[in-house]
């Protein structure tokens, strides 16, 4: 007779395949936010076909980071902050603080992006657009089956973004041959954009979004590693597919000789490439990218706080709604919360090397990973990513310090 499940531990879901796919899309849509769209458009205009190599290199590094995090989280059955506290007492509380602070600050930008998306579509005032988008996000977490609602929300809007961006990419007719050639044979290697894309795809809270979702669904233990590995790679490839489609859409525009509007590069690319329809499509893509990032950032940020106090654990859905409300209030009442954004940006640059480094230490601890033996190549891959992330974090801190002094 099988042993009963430990108290307070959810049983594995009946629709585990749906959870794995939902976790992949939650991670991917958390990465695909307003900054993701802008970064991709700006770098495409700047580096043109060579940006294909940047995307390819960043995808490889993203997979290395995410494989390590998701596998160790699953094997240990511990959320990121609890795992960190086992590695070094108190470290988890520090990580929870910087993840929540960074998530709150970037959520202000996500709320703003959702508001701008509705403004593009319907001419709605941005403050009302922010409130309307927040109410839609509230609905996800008011559902009795919050996890399933969040999975479906991420999957549906994720597919919408991919299909619409694919349409624009086809309409702009980018030089595919040149893009494919430069993906493996660039005329020069832009190093810093690779680090920027690494942080934007798996930095901060993002790489933990899907892993924590699986824990909440009861998926833990080494018996799930094959599915977890597949789900983690699916998440990266989904976000990267969106990056590729967006790159091709913008590349088709700039290769034809057009110049993007520096005030809103991705919007101008969609409009130049596909006319007013393209502009409205951008509104849909921007809103979908932003509102799913609101959901992902809020869910994951609060998941890092859940072990700080029993009331947060018991009422975590309400805390998530409060997190969204706080982000929206900041956007509506404070036009430019500069100090918060600067501080959060500085701290966010430190999250990936700290969390990934902690995970790599944890995989060697029998009291955390049990008899599980982490593949040596994954550890080596993780160490490389940590080193690059430390360098990127130092660059971020220096840049933020310079901005702060202005």
Helix/strand layout:
Layout: H1 16-31, H2 34-47, H3 51-76, H4 80-87, H5 91-122, H6 126-142, H7 146-172, H8 176-184, H9 191-202, H10 206-216, H11 225-255, H12 265-303, H13 310-314, H14 316-333, H15 338-362, H16 366-369, H17 376-405
Give structural notes.
The protein is mostly helical. It has one domain (16-405): Up-down Bundle (Amino acid/polyamine transporter I), CATH 1.20.1740. The protein has 17 helices and no strands. The chain has helices at 16-31, 34-47, 51-76, 80-87, 91-122, 126-142, 146-172, 176-184, 191-202, 206-216, 225-255, 265-303, 310-314, 316-333, 338-362, 366-369, 376-405. Helix 1 (16-31) packs across helix 12 (265-303), helix 3 (51-76) packs parallel to helix 10 and helix 10 (206-216) crosses helix 12 (265-303). It is globular, with a radius of gyration of 20 Å. Mean pLDDT is 90; it is low at 1-14.
In short:
By secondary structure, the protein is mainly α.
Brief descriptors of the model:
mainly alpha; 17 helices; single chain; disordered N terminus; Amino acid/polyamine transporter I; 0% strand
**Residue windows where pLDDT falls under 50 for at least 5 positions:** 1-14
In total, how many domains does the architecture comprise?
Answer: 1
Structure classification: mainly alpha
Q: What percent of residues are in strands?
A: under 5%
Which CATH first-tier class would you pick? Answer: Mainly Alpha
Rg (C-alpha, Å): 20 Å
Choose one word for the global shape. Answer: globular
Number of strands: 0
Considering DSSP H and I runs of 4 or more, what fraction of the residues is helical?
A: over 70%
Mean pLDDT: 90
| CATH fold label | Amino acid/polyamine transporter I
Q: Helix and strand string, N-terminal first?
A: HHHHHHHHHHHHHHHHH
Q: Helix count, per DSSP?
A: 17
Give me the CATH superfamily. Answer: Amino acid/polyamine transporter I
- The CATH architecture classification is Up-down Bundle
Largest sheet: none
Distance between the termini: 68 Å
């Amino acid at each position: 007779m099988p042993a009963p499940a430990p108290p307070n531990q959810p049983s594995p879901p009946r629709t585990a395949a749906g959870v794995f796919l939902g976790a992949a899309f939650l991670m991917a849509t958390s990465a695909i936010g307003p900054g993701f769209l802008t970064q991709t458009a700006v770098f495409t205009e700047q580096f043109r076909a060579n940006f294909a190599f940047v995307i390819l290199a960043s995808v490889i590094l993203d997979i290395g980071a995410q494989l390590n995090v998701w596998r160790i989280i699953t094997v240990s059955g511990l959320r990121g902050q609890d795992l960190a506290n086992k590695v070094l007492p108190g470290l988890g509380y520090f990580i929870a603080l910087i993840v929540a602070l960074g998530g709150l600050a970037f959520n202000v930008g996500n709320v703003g992006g959702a508001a701008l998306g509705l403004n593009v579509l319907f001419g709605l005032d941005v403050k009302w657009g922010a409130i309307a988008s927040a109410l839609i996000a509230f609905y996800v977490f008011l559902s009795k089956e919050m996890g399933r609602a969040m999975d479906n929300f991420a999957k549906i809007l994720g597919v919408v973004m991919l299909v619409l961006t694919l349409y624009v990419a086809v309409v702009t007719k980018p030089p595919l041959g040149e893009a494919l050639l430069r993906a493996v044979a660039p005329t020069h290697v832009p190093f810093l954009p690779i680090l920027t894309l690494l942080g934007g795809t798996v930095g901060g809270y993002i790489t933990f979004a899907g892993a924590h979702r699986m824990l909440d669904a009861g998926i833990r233990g080494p018996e799930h590693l094959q599915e977890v590995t597949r789900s983690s790679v699916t998440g990266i490839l989904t976000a990267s597919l969106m990056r590729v489609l967006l790159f091709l859409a913008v590349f088709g525009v700039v290769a034809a000789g057009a110049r993007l509007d520096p005030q809103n590069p991705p919007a101008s690319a969609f409009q130049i490439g596909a006319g007013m329809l393209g502009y409205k499509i951008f509104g849909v893509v921007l809103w979908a990218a932003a509102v799913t990032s609101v959901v992902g950032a809020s869910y994951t940020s609060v998941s890092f706080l859940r072990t700080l106090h029993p009331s947060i654990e018991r009422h975590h859905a309400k805390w998530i709604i409060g997190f969204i409300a706080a982000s929206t209030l900041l956007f509506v009442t404070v036009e430019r919360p500069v100090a918060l954004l600067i501080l959060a940006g500085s701290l966010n640059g430190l999250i990936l090397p700290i969390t990934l480094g902690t995970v790599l230490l944890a995989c060697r601890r029998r009291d955390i990973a049990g008899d599980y033996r982490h593949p040596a190549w994954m550890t080596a891959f993780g160490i490389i990513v940590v080193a690059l992330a430390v360098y990127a974090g130092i660059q971020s801190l220096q840049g933020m310090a310079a901005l702060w002094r202005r």
